[in-house]
Design brief:
The chain has a 9-stranded mixed β-sheet, sandwiched between helices. α2 crosses α3. The protein is 26% helix and 21% strand. It is built from 8 helices and 9 strands. β1 and β2 form a beta hairpin. By secondary structure, the protein is of the alpha/beta class. The longest helix is centred in the middle third of the chain and has 14 residues.
Length: 257
């Protein structure tokens, strides 16, 4: 499968819906807001991206909402519903980030998206200014990646069993970990473990009713993400870089997406 991205928009960060193709597979994403760029990888595959939209953050940040492959209007893998591993999502994320035309972005992941974001930050940190992990864990609980849309297995019907705890010990990008104090999902225990593993990570425990909800749902969450992203100097997170042709030709390292 080709890893060259074919862009469908001359301005990949203009407000609205965008897409590009990789080997015949469409990657759809949506841009809203203004300010430093924050790419948002949502939770359980199959959930419509609008349910996880964060208008409060759009007042401060350019939010790039990913429709993960296998979900919504994005394309399906030839092996559908198998093959949607964290590393596969990470490869498509790398192409999307490369194609945005900024030096670095912040990556924000919610629930299953936090698993993907943690994996991406640990293994492909080059274009990241920081990572925000909201209600996620470094090891997917049994069955956590399966949904009505994807199986949680790779193309060879093996489970995605990667444990990122060792890799996260060497994380080189700033990290913010957000959990709800009373959440019954990954929970406070996972949050403390993740924050303890990642060097100099910040931990925010939400006490104002966000209980596993959407990122930016409460004032404290919005402030924390806004301040975390805006603390990075503009020279690290902003600024157009490669030409459109360069972005279109840039490919994912390490084989197929």
């Amino acid at each position: 499968m080709s890893t060259d991205a074919i862009l469908a928009s001359p301005d990949p960060l203009s407000p609205g819906t965008h897409s590009f193709e990789v080997g015949g597979i469409t990657q759809r994403y949506h841009v809203h807001g203004s300010g430093p760029v924050c790419v948002f990888h949502p939770g359980v595959p199959g959930v419509d991206w609008t349910h996880l939209r964060a208008p409060a953050l759009e007042k401060h940040l350019t939010m790039v909402y990913v429709e993960p492959i296998g979900t919504g209007a994005s394309g399906r893998l030839p092996s559908h519903p198998h093959g949607y591993t964290r590393d596969r999502y990470s490869r498509f994320l790398e192409l999307l980030i490369n194609n945005l035309g900024v030096r670095r972005v912040h990556l924000l992941g919610h629930a299953h998206g936090a698993l993907v974001a943690a994996h991406h930050a640990a293994h492909r940190p080059e274009r990241l200014a920081g990572v925000v992990l909201h209600e996620g864990a470094p090891v997917p609980p049994c069955g956590a990646e399966a949904s009505s849309c994807v199986s949680g297995l790779d193309e060879d019907l093996g489970p995605d069993t990667t444990d990122d705890r060792v890799a996260l010990k060497g994380l080189t990008v700033p990290a913010l970990v957000i959990v709800s104090g009373d959440d019954t999902g990954p929970g406070l225990g996972w949050g403390r473990e993740v924050a303890g593993i990642i060097p100099d990570a910040r931990l925010l425990v939400l006490r104002d009713g966000a209980r596993g909800g959407t990122i930016g749902e409460t004032a404290s969450c919005t402030r924390a993400v806004r301040d975390f992203v805006q603390a990075v100097p503009a020279s690290q997170s902003d600024g157009r870089t490669a030409t459109r042709t360069d972005r279109a030709r840039r490919s994912v390292s390490g084989g197929r997406p």
